[in-house]
């Protein structure tokens, strides 16, 4: 993707966005609501015309690919005719792309919908719709997979399965996977690289390891102790941020390991020690903070204005 | 291209829309044919009596009442992609979008042929049985046969026009309502007002009437010119629709 821009009227959805996605890895495409993820993916797939810039697969724009479904599989939304069965939905695209109709049954089995294939797609649950959409993307056994929020509506088991499936595709089969999400925690365990956008601009691009290393010490730690007051004073003494409530301390800008070390050194008894937001999440908020277009006022602030 | 056409047929026959329209068409054509035969020769209705060539030609042209359903068939065929948002997977499969519109034009024109034959069969059956009971069943020769052929052709052309309109308007309800209002309100008004009735022969309804020439009416084109005019309207709508479909963002 190079220098991609797109505006809708006065809304600048994507501005001068450039990044690359590497084969054999899962890349997370992250950003808050309205950051321009879906718009970027639609331009990548030739469904929207960018105002400027180009998006290519191995140098070729999507619309010039000779066998698009074999090259790229994409899930942008769960779209199907409600009165058509899942199997027939897949058969339509088998026909159009020249695949044998048996591919429909193969991908249904692959996403765990084999039993529901003959039911009307309109009667599917949200998770089943996501699976059917994924099955559509898998029809051509593509080298590149582009997924827009595929975990939406999946149950914990489904999310677990999806993670394993995407890692398998990328690491064992060498496929390229680009998966968007607005939650870092959702893809944290799956992705190798991240591309973070905020308000249509690139905020950060790099490997998870790079992101993690920058995240050291940036988290919030929760501590419960019978000697909370003493420990709080001790931590405050060297400028560490601490707030205290009912014997529970919230320590910012540090790691559980560091807090534990301090408590041990001072001989303070701890009943609970855990990280409330991982450093990674804090980094993510920090990176996308302020770029949130649709940030809702916090309930506390709303209360105050009444 | 044949792959895409077959894909369109799969789409058409994996929902029940086609069945509903087909049955609706049978009822409509059968009903009109029966009514017409029933009132034939009745002084108040002004219809020619059973047994005259005029009656036979009007009676055997009743399949054209189903044109509106063929129009809707074509409109639904195109607009369902936008209504159910399947335009996304469809255009992902076929990024050169004009091919999708062309495949639909071919698929629906061809699929409309057997549908039209069913309409004609119902028409002939009802008229033959009912008029036969009232004295004289029409023979299926000469002018009568020509009326049937042009009626069937008109039905097929209306399915084509439907696809074109669907590509142009994209909104299913809007396209169908717009089509109905045009056919049943706008054109009859234009036809009946002397000042504008001269233009009527150049309009789709005028083309249709020219093809299936009945015994009365305003100044019309010849049958074949009327047919070509109709095909022209269908292709024009499809061409504009394709140009728009290629340019417009799919959201
Ligand atoms: N068709 C459209 N017409 C007008 N504005 C649009 C359209 N599509 C997107 N936008 C605007 O562009 C911006 C980016 O939207 P986009 O859907 O790409 O965000 P996103 O990152 O996918 O968000 P989410 O996480 O909520 O899915 C938003 O401000 C949105 O309102
Ligand atoms: Mg989105």
Please tally the β strands of chain B and state the result: 0
Q: Share of helix among residues of chain A? A: 25-40%
Task: Calculate the terminal CA-CA distance of chain B, rounded to whole Å.
Answer: 25 Å
Question: Any ligands, ions or cofactors bound here, and which?
Answer: adenosine-5'-triphosphate, magnesium ion
Biggest beta sheet summary of chain B:
none
How much strand content do the residues of chain B show? under 5%
Mean pLDDT of chain A: 84
Query: In the CATH hierarchy, what is the superfamily of the largest domain in chain A?
Result: P-loop containing nucleotide triphosphate hydrolases
What's the order of the H and E elements of chain A? EEEHEHEHHHEHEHEEHEHEEHEHH
Tell me the greatest interface.
A-B, 33 and 27 residues
Keywords (chain B): Membrane, Transmembrane, Transmembrane helix
Transmembrane segments (chain B): 21-39, 59-78, 105-127, 147-169, 181-203, 223-246
Protein name (chain B): ABC-2 family transporter protein
Protein name (chain A): ABC-2 type transport system ATP-binding protein
Can you describe this structure?
The complex is a heterodimer of chains A (306) and B (251). Chain A has 306 residues and is an alpha/beta fold. Chain A has two domains: 2-212 and 280-304, Rossmann fold (3-Layer(aba) Sandwich); 226-270, no CATH class. Chain A has twelve helices and 13 strands. In chain A, helix 4 packs across helix 5 (126-138) and helix 8 crosses helix 11 (279-288). Chain A is elongated, with a radius of gyration of 23 Å. Helix content of chain B is 76%, strand content 0%. Chain B has helices at residues 2-13, 17-39, 53-59, 67-83, 87-93, 97-133, 142-169, 172-192, 194-200, 204-211, 223-247. In chain B, helix 2 runs antiparallel to helix 4. Classes of the chains: A alpha/beta (306), B mainly alpha (251). Chains A and B meet through helix 3 of A and helix 1 and helix 5 of B. Bound molecules: adenosine-5'-triphosphate and magnesium ion. Residues 8, 11, 13, 31, 33-39, 182, 293 of chain A line the site of adenosine-5'-triphosphate (ATP).
């Amino acid at each position: 993707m190079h220098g991609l821009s797109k505006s809708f009227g006065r809304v600048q959805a994507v501005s001068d966005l450039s990044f690359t996605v590497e084969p054999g890895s899962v890349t997370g495409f992250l950003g808050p609501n309205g950051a321009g993820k879906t718009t970027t993916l639609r331009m990548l797939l030739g469904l929207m015309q960018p105002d400027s810039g180009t998006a290519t697969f191995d140098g070729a724009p999507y619309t010039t690919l000779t066998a698009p479904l074999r090259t790229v599989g994409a899930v942008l939304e769960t779209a199907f005719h409600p009165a058509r069965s899942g199997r027939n939905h897949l058969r339509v695209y088998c026909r159009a792309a020249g695949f044998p109709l048996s591919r429909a049954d193969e991908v249904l089995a692959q996403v765990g919908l084999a039993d529901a294939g003959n039911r009307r797609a309109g009667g599917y649950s949200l998770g089943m719709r996501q699976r059917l959409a994924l099955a559509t993307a898998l029809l051509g056994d593509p080298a590149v997979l582009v997924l827009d929020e595929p975990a939406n509506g999946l149950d914990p088991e489904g999310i677990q399965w999806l993670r394993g499936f995407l890692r398998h595709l990328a690491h064992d089969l060498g496929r390229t996977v680009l998966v968007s999400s607005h939650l870092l925690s959702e893809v944290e365990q799956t992705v190798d690289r991240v591309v973070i956008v905020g308000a249509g601009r690139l905020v950060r691009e790099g490997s998870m390891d790079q992101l993690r290393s920058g995240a050291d010490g940036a988290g919030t730690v929760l501590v419960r102790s019978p000697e909370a007051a003493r420990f709080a004073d001790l931590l405050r003494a060297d400028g560490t941020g601490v707030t205290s409530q009912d014997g529970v301390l919230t320590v910012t800008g540090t790691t559980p390991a560091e807090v534990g070390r301090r408590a041990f050194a001072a001989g303070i008894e701890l009943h609970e020690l855990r990280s409330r937001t991982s450093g990674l999440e804090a980094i993510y908020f920090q990176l996308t903070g302020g770029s949130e277009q649709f940030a809702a006022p916090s309930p506390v602030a709303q209360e105050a204005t009444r | 291209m044949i792959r895409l056409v077959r894909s369109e047929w799969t789409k058409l026959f994996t929902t029940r829309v086609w069945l509903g329209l087909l049955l609706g068409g049978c009822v409509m054509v059968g009903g009109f044919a029966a009514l017409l035969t029933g009132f034939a020769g009745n002084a108040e209705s002004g219809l020619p009596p059973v047994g005259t060539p005029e009656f036979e030609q009007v009676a055997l042209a009743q399949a054209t009442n189903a044109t509106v359903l063929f129009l809707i068939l074509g409109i639904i065929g195109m607009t369902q992609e936008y209504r159910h948002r399947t335009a996304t997977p469809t255009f992902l499969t076929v990024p050169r979008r004009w091919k999708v519109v062309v495949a639909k034009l071919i698929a629906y024109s061809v699929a409309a042929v057997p549908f039209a034959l069913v309409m004609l069969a119902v028409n002939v059956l009802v008229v033959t049985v009912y008029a036969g009971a009232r004295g004289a069943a029409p023979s299926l020769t000469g002018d009568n046969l020509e009326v049937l052929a042009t009626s069937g052709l008109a039905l097929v052309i209306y399915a084509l026009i439907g696809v074109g309109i669907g590509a142009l308007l994209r909104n299913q309800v809007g396209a169908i309502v717009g089509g109905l209002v045009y056919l049943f309100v706008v054109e009859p008004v234009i036809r009946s007002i002397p000042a504008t009735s001269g233009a009527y022969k150049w309009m789709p309804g005028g083309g249709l009437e020219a093809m299936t020439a009945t015994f009365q009416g305003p100044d019309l084109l010849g049958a074949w010119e009327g047919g070509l005019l109709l095909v022209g309207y269908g292709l024009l709508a499809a061409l504009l629709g394709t140009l728009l479909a290629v340019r417009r963002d799919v959201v």
